Amino acid sequence: MDWELKSLLNELKEGREVTNQLMKHLRPSSSHQTRQFLLDKILCSYEKALSILNWNGFVVETKPSVTAFESSPSIDHSSEVSDIKDVLKKRKTSSGGTEQVRVCSGKSLDNPLDDGYCWRKYGQKAILGSNFPRGYYRCTHRHSQGCLAIKQVQRSDNDPSNFEVKYKGRHTCNQASHSAATFVPVLPESKEKGNHSRKRPYQLEKKQEQVRHIFSSFESGLKVKTEDLDNREDIFPSFSFPVESEQVKSCLFVEALMENDIMGNLSPAFVSPATSDSNYFSVSSCHMGSFESDLTDIISDPTSVTNSPIGDIDISSLDNLEFDPSFPFDNPEFFS
DNA sequence: CCCATTTGACCGCC
DNA sequence: GGCGGTCAAATGGG
């Protein structure tokens, strides 16, 4: 089975499971926060499922949705949710065909350039019809390691606090593969810079700074457009990946806390970014965004790992999920 | 001094 | 010719 279909199934299953959890939490004793958490998870599953369909050429219109978060006065989740508009665009490929490009919108109150990679700006252009110039960046390791990753950043006209980030190419540098795989921030530079004593500490420092920003960047969200210059199977193992790796870890972290079997079921898009198309991470950003308070609490306080459930979610209740086994989500023919 | 950014020039495509 | 994208010299910061 295609991994996309697996992902789709996983997302739908997860949506089903979380819906069941939510049902359990409809009782008055459950907290609003818990219900929000579950609602958001459901929405994210739907978003991911829709994205998968989108990517496979289905015409799926995604529109801003309303969630319980809008009733939350403390956090502006409404903007996040309404910004999770994944738009597919066609672009020409080198072979003359078209290729889908997904646009995810969001807001970044933080530095939109901090996505875990080291970028070097090589140009800036005023774009016709846009109020703000477009910045052109390429991977710092372009020359030392031949990394061809490129990104373009442009402030949104409609919402100047919004940035559209468009990625092209894939990271082939060490930084990409390692930062995607582990938390180890940076690798030794290639020998040509070995005589530079200050280089490494500087990059380490910078990298750690970037890592710190990753969550906040995705809390607020970014408008991210991805596009690869190569073939589809080449799509960005890396692109997602300092970013997504953080998210994956966070998700795994959350999932582990929430009894992996229940909330687990991570889609391949999450688990195996190296084999995924580039674009699913943005959906997970909504995931992240809505979990922000929980995650930041958990992450900032290691002691909470073992003895603190997420918010006040009743983990024990998650052990006994109930859902209608007759619902044909598991049947591949359901989707044919 | 090295490196990243800035910015005007240049290039290729439509 | 106009536009988007890239190059590369100039500039500035650490």
From TrEMBL:
Record's keyword annotation contains Lipid metabolism: no
Locations listed in the record: Nucleus
Residue ranges constituting the WRKY domain according to the UniProt record: 108-176
Entry GO terms, CC: nucleus
Domain of life: Eukaryota
SMART domains xref list: WRKY
Main subcellular localisation: nucleus
BP terms from Gene Ontology: leaf senescence; response to hydrogen peroxide; response to ozone; response to salicylic acid
Keyword Transport set for record: no
InterPro entries listed in its UniProt record: WRKY_dom, WRKY_dom_sf, WRKY_plant
Entry's transmembrane regions: none
Molecular function per GO: DNA-binding transcription factor activity; transcription cis-regulatory region binding
Keywords: DNA-binding, Nucleus, Transcription, Transcription regulation
PROSITE patterns given in the database record: WRKY
Similarity comment text for this entry: Belongs to the WRKY group III family.
Protein name: WRKY domain-containing protein
Species whose genome carries this gene: Hibiscus syriacus
